[in-house]
Target: histidine kinase
Amino acid sequence: MLDVSLAVVSALECALEGIPFARDAGIPVAAGVVFGLLAGSVLLVRRRWPIAVVLVSIAITPAEMGFLMGVVGLYTLAAAELPRRIIGSLAGMSLVGTLIVTFVKTQQDMSRGDLEIGDWFVPFAAITMSLGFTAPPVLLGLYVGARRRLMESLRERADSLERELQLLAERAEERAEWARNEERTRIAREMHDVVAHRVSLMVVHAAALQAVARKDPEKAVKNAALVGDMGRQALTELREMLGVLRSGGDGPPREPSASTSPAVPASASVPLAAVGEAAAAAASRVADDEGPCLAEIEELVGQSAAAGMVVALSVEGDVRSYAPLVEQTAYRVVQEALTNVHKHAAGAKTYVRLAHRVSEIAMQVENEPPEEAASSARLPSGGNGLVGMRERVSALGGVFVSGPTDAGGFRVSAVIPAS
Model:
């Protein structure tokens, strides 16, 4: 609407100015009016072709027509995304054209006696008029164009920052999901190590109790006591782990308030970082404070021996203490290896070896071929024991190897850096 209004006003102005132009040129007045209408209407395309509008305004300047078109055209030209040399050239041509026309017109008026002023007025009027019609629209257009480009660059920068924030949020969510999966795996591994060994021994003792209940009551009572001890130990370890997981945050868990909508899950209002920190704190407390140590391996081997396994323990090197996580990992490797012997090679003679070296600790659990093809206790297997051991050792930068021996048995070996 603005462009159409300006074009209509410019066409009317040029049409009115075409009347004296037609009289001075000696052509029909109607021709001058039509020429003015056509020339003034060119302002309608000022946004698409500003150079054409300025050129037309310069072309009709000698006819003293198109002053509005010249001013608006120069403003649009200066505000457009065009090279400065083009803007400067066209502005200079418009300035020179206006200067010449104004100089000639003023001098003619003075020669006819219409103006009785000194000769200095002619150049003064020409320069003033040309600068007045050229400089303000060009300067205003340059300012508006620069401001527009600045706003566009700020808008692009804001959009870029918004995209970056969105990418950061997506990456943070991915990291939080990865952290949750890692902690879930670690917790599952801890639960497996705590439960599998104790329950396996309980099942072995229960099978032995069933076999000797009538033949040897005294041994049956002993096995029953061992089963009870194993169950109590398993429950104690489970309570300790669950207690650590429950107190992994800064305080005790709070019940949801009555105002909380049941349709919204509680996890939606908890920051992802808080979830990750709580899970990491719980896992580290399980690993560092509540985990077993190398000093308990002798007791571990004794429990397996009490369950009927023929097992021998040998220790090489100077016994010393290690980081809690290293000792726990070594203990869990031996524990899981003995559990696998109970499951898959019941009755097989087993050798447990520990080697304290300068910068590492090595452990090996090897069993001979079992006497029977299957365990009489029929212990189930989840298939995660070796995977869990490998994950534990690899997480500390160690090496884990497992596989059958040439004699038909099975061997589990691990080397863990001391630091």
Summary: Confidence is low (pLDDT under 50) at residues 249-283, 285-289, 373-377. The longest strand covers residues 360-367. Residues 2-119 form one domain.
